[in-house]
């Protein structure tokens, strides 16, 4: 099965949601309280995906709100610099700040993140700042779940999804769950269910699907059975080192395997996975191949220091896949 | 066309949302600042509809949150007294208050309402307090738009709609727009659109549909054309004294006429209309007849002092229709 | 001892703080959930004192913020009607509402009050709306403790006290504690202590002084010992039916006795007490006599239906004192 | 004139308020959006003063609230490491974050700061966490104005001042104005006036005193004339490169001159000034000498990268004063 995209569209993908700052520990292998220096990168799941797909050669755009300060300016300049269209990135006028993520790299197994998400500019994106004219120029609208955590960003996302569906733009929903900003698990479940039912492709970890269903230890079968009653055509459920499963509405199941690599830190894996997976789908590859692209891209990013700057090129991905041809994807 | 309901269900209708207090001016024909005495009634659109349908002989239930004080107690006792099932009306534990509506009756044309809606208990209904077991015992879930205005009531409603659709419960969406508690017109439009697209029947005034579409002076044709791409089977658009239009997905249009009456005040008309209209649909009457029931019920309530206590019986409605048989409903 | 006031001043007293609506049960001797009709009066401690002193013939003014609706208009018209200067009562422009107090009159011993104090206009009085030119025209600034419960009203009061002290205006602090709007007992204690130390006269019940000191069952001796290290010259501590004690910085103690009366309800007693007590002080009576005036005024108000409209005249007070001459005040 | 301190006390100084993180640009002479690496230091005016006085050999303590994360841990470890007593630094349990200050060092004249002050832990210090037993062990309570910007920190400070005055602890008020967190200029003026009137020593820039008085271009004469009607014995008003003036209640005026130095950045100057000035007063030096110590300490800090780590020793200060003996303080 292949997902069909509207080939007339100028943009391959428009991502919506947060664009933030990562402050990554320069000194490794120690707790953050002993880390004295931090290096600055653009971060935030949908921003990383816009950057990642742009570096893979797709035409990407971004809808989001930036702080009116040096951090906001840096993000806009960086994203424009790697080719992302920033014409729909608006600047906050009410003193909200850029979200921050300080990373601690104690060991490959222990990577914690200290988030600054109070009153951040990205959550103040207003529905009036979401343009139908812009969205309808794209094949894909990429929605990340965190942007649903607070009003008015929540309503901006819901409006964007309504506009995408009205204009034949495929909606990709990356669950991207961050407990920090949500009022309750019930609240998360309501909005995740709402958007997942309207999306064409849903991507997340098994844990994130459990959050969506407000249950513990849910099964992939129950998840896809419920979702395929609604809009989704393709559901990708990631199980960490065990690899990932892609389910299609027509009944196929594909399994993708993780590529072993020397891990520096774990964050950034999901966004690089999504970027390469979507790149493969958009360029007409089949789902098995897309799963390989996703895994290869993730393997490259977890071995490097940043999430955004480390996003690989097509050549790097394809080289890794070729080198590891025995770590295959099997159609079960 | 007739709407089909699941005949196995114990409840005809479960309404969800606010149950409040109306404080109606005892002295008429003067501005409120000169009104010295107020009489207390239960109010709030979905509470009025639960009461109205119960007085018409239907089995009604209510999901909502009440203040933990004498006003909350009065509401629960009154609703139980007229036969509404109050088993799913929960009591707030955080000091929130009962919503109030002081009414001013200057003249039949000038009836203003002074609302107390800050931090009211009904808007604190939590999604965890919405029970799937309860909702699936009903033919209909009646949702009123005001309950979407604030979290967590908003999420409670969205969850109730998800549960209703999952369990073959018809969703009736009464737009019931009150500007007071909404953050912006964009926000209202997003949630009204969301719920209307998922509802089976949508009822509102032309002005309320304009709010839903975030436009001025919209047309019924555009409204139904957009909605019939989604779940709705029946859309009722009210045009005040000009009467109302009922549109079906199968392409029929019905017009209902208002019955002339001696008007004391205008509020309460919409809720009595909805009660009798739904009563007629549930008891298997056709849409033309349901429109007459709605108009007759509204005509009775606007001639009386309250909204809830004035809800008519079936006999009163049928007598008025018989008396006014020349004020007909025409299938256009 | 007598308190000396600046005799050059145009106003005898300017009160600052809340002016609200009381909705008093028309039907007595029943719980509020069975009360169906409510009568409207002006309420709120400082408003009652402005009204009470004006009815006693003093020149009173008021600083406060009113809702921009019919309730706000009623308050302004009523207060102007009884002679209070309303030139410094500003109208809120942000949709805040008038505070409400529904009263339940079950029996003389059981009178509860159901308060609406969320987002009320009076607590939005801004320091920029407090005029030095106005305050310095008065002998007395009457501050009620409840106005300290929330910003910006809190800052408006603190500024008014600073301006009063700068301009030789006596500050009377009526503790008037209402737990409802305060964040914590610690918070109340901090601001009550701050204003009490700067006041010239402090008036409250023993319970209210305990709140100020954040202790249980405090002693009058400890209270006055701490306060007389600061500005206060006179401290009045009320002990309910046991009567009240007035302490002067110069070391005198006076005891006032309550006049027995047929009690309808207990609320309003404190404000009528303060009005008459201040009237007596301002008109040059000694403290013993002022205590009698206070007790007599309270006895009259508790036998009537309202707090504001029931405020007595000088003749009524003096007649009651003459009639009850054996219920004396003794200098201990 | 010399300020007399209670010589029996264990602590020389207890500071109260914020302890935060400075993230100073590692790369200089460029705008912050082009700065890619940041170095972490403890920051916040009262924390800097506790650190500065401790490094000068005084016994310092600190009252404040820290985030329950790696940044909070770093601050506590660092302050304990330089000898500050951290027994009254409490850890927030509600997810609040450490305040941040990103510094931009474009040039010695252009040093901007990007503050993260939303929902920070230090502003959640509760009055219940301020201990009378701790405060009364100190000669001095050092209060910084920023801690008055929000509740409950505001009430914690007001309580601390009440306890200090009750227990013969000198109150030093460092105005330390940061516009960011205040609701309005009126609000700042109310609380600055309140605390300044109760303090023994008030220190600030001319601009900060203008904020306190809510005027533009105020005069030192008017400032001291108003303050000396209340508690202050000593008022220090800083005029930047023109130097500073110290006024005593007994009528003396002293002028301190700035020491010229090679400036790297301007921030940190005020805190190092206050640390050395207070050190000199506490160790019994006269006011002229204290002004020199303050200026010398400021000159040293502005030539270095951090505010806290750069705090000089007594030897460094005295060496600079000796080297620059011709840049004198004159008694005018």
From TrEMBL, chains A, B, C, D:
The organism's place on the tree of life at top rank: Bacteria
EC category: transferase
Catalytic reactions of this protein: 5-dehydro-2-deoxy-D-gluconate + ATP = 6-phospho-5-dehydro-2-deoxy-D-gluconate + ADP + H(+)
Pfam families tied to this protein: PfkB (PF00294)
Pathway(s) of this molecule: Polyol metabolism; myo-inositol degradation into acetyl-CoA; acetyl-CoA from myo-inositol: step 5/7
Keywords per UniProt: ATP-binding, Kinase, Nucleotide-binding, Transferase
GO molecular function: 5-dehydro-2-deoxygluconokinase activity; ATP binding
Cross-referenced SUPFAM superfamilies: Ribokinase-like
GO biological process, one term: inositol catabolic process
Annotated family: Belongs to the carbohydrate kinase PfkB family.
HAMAP family membership: IolC (MF_01668)
Protein task: Catalyzes the phosphorylation of 5-dehydro-2-deoxy-D-gluconate (2-deoxy-5-keto-D-gluconate or DKG) to 6-phospho-5-dehydro-2-deoxy-D-gluconate (DKGP).
Designated name of the protein: 5-dehydro-2-deoxygluconokinase
